[in-house]
């Protein structure tokens, strides 16, 4: 396992508020799980202490996220997207392959490749910590969600929350729910909204989500090519070094010089790939998830609208038949209230989403540009 | 296929019973041929059975081996002085630098260019014709500036002739460029795209380098086949291109290696120079192959990178368009623009790497195979010499027996055969010494060329690198100074 201090949130610009501050102060990577130390500082009365920490695993974050999604009260909010599962499989596989191939390379080569892979492992680790932290910070910054009881339990209860992962049956149920939702989504999307704001948002979000998905996939491919090239450069540098040390003519100086150059190039290419990864790829991935969450909000609103319209029809029918009128009226009022509540909060949520999004992109792109400039100057 | 051999006409070549013999050696001008063959074929295993111990080239142990006879009546035979005297000593104390050619390398006045690739004919019978232009002030040639048209199989034919004449006596004959079925088919079919254009350019460049390397070799330059290739307007079509492909030549060279592996007398190299050089070339071979593979992989990944960067740039631009916050959409568009420019530079850099470095590495991987082949031929030559000596010894024993048994007619025949064999053994020794001497000179030349070639390419690469970096820097600075 590797203990590592958690980084500050990089993706989202949040207003830090003294009443509740959450971060991941430490993390431990074990064989098949990661243990995050969630650290809270709060002046709120509902907590026993002002500052405390608990240890949480990925499944517990998912449990918290799902509890928000399933809560009807939060139907009108963009639920902060759940952090992706920590995935070290690829990295571990590479380290294993390196171990197996140890005999076929020189000591310098092996040491170098090992360092590279360990750095990669560390980078993935840092990223997963960052993503889990961002999730918690978003919740803590949300005026309503921060008051959620489950959230407080998550932060404070210092025993294992014993949330078992979803079993097969539940996973299947989820799958069908999603299928139905998307079919519905198509149906609902077809209904033109009376409200201009929401109509515009719907069009925008559908297009935006698809384009972010595309950009995210392409940036991943680009970064992978970068990494492949950096690996090749690493191997070339090693070969040149060996040639240089073995050569007895004055070519050896040349070989060693070029080897040095390739080594420097590799460091820069790796750095560039890592920067792009962090500033660009992670950013795109995050907004892919959040734009999906925004779409889900719109869907919920549409559903509420449909329910409201159905309730209206039912009320008209009841009045016409003069049967169960009171029941129909109550139902209609409930639906109306629910719809209006959702619409009101959804509007604000979507405006906030845009503000956050623009700020995050601007910040990251500027930082990325500055880094690329720095690298260009160095070379 | 009778081939003319440069060594003196008295040379008698003995056919080895081993499986690996180059065609050139198959010619036996000895009328006693069949008889000798039968002697050889008689228990070929037995002939070498006693010789499985390690024998050093000039060690006294060999005397013991040779004079170890079953019959005490045999007069102890003193092997000819040449077997024990280390003639090789002459060279062991010289570093390869001291064995230099008189002709100054820098004043080599000849330039060959291969240009104007032209498709001749149609369909599957089509081929590319190249213009081979020579500019020289050497008196060896009929004029100072002339050109001819040649096709790829002509080059292969030239190499095949040179290889069969010179490889087995220790000259490092530069290998011809590889055949490429895929590449040529595209050209024949008439598919004109970037990759087929690249292929033609790659081949043209490789053919030019091949010819320059060949003519830089002082011995090969004077060869009539080379002169004919460069000068005569009509060249007889090279037949059987299968046998002429680089792979074919490689196979011939490898057969020599096979023969070496099958040698039952392990040649214990007491000449440190050869041992050191063998090791040196083995290492070089390994390292260059590894490097070549990595460089080709890098070129491939860089190409992928530029494709993926372009794709991402377009995607980012689309994203920028959908974002209805104008400042952000402008930033995203600029990002797309930068990515696009960097993509172009990556492509340029990939091309630069590709042609210079990778091609040179490929050339040297093939060249070193030829070098190793030449070392193997030396071992084969040594083996032949040793075989001759062993045979001679057996004949001597047989003669002694005949003398003892008093059979005068057979005795005379035996004496004649022995005299002939003695001549062969002496020739075998001369051959071995000659090839050793030739290889020393060749290796010295080769190393000088290698150092020069690599230095040139590396400097060229570094220069192109500096230019690329500068361009990247400038572009990034311009773009972001605008955005700020």
Automatic annotation (TrEMBL), chain A:
One term under GO cellular component: endosome
Boundaries of every PX domain copy: 14-161
Domain of life assignment: Eukaryota
Keyword terms, alphabetized: Coiled coil, Protein transport, Transport
PROSITE patterns reported in the protein's UniProt record: PX
Entry's Gene Ontology BP terms: protein transport; retrograde transport, endosome to Golgi
One GO molecular-function entry: phosphatidylinositol binding
SUPFAM superfamilies: PX domain (SSF64268)
Coiled coil regions in record: 301-328
Keyword Cell membrane assigned: no
Residues that span the membrane, as ranges: none
Family to which this protein belongs: Belongs to the sorting nexin family.
Name under which the protein is recorded: Sorting nexin 6
Automatic annotation (TrEMBL), chain B:
GO molecular function: phosphatidylinositol binding
Organism: Cyclopterus lumpus
GO terms under cellular component: cytosol; early endosome membrane; lamellipodium
Domain of life: Eukaryota
Its job: Involved in several stages of intracellular trafficking. Interacts with membranes containing phosphatidylinositol 3-phosphate (PtdIns(3P)) or phosphatidylinositol 3,5-bisphosphate (PtdIns(3,5)P2). Acts in part as component of the retromer membrane-deforming SNX-BAR subcomplex. The SNX-BAR retromer mediates retrograde transport of cargo proteins from endosomes to the trans-Golgi network (TGN) and is involved in endosome-to-plasma membrane transport for cargo protein recycling.
BP GO annotations: early endosome to Golgi transport; protein transport
Record key words, sorted: Acetylation, Cell projection, Coiled coil, Endosome, Membrane, Phosphoprotein, Protein transport, Transport
Protein name: Sorting nexin-2
Keyword Ubl conjugation: no
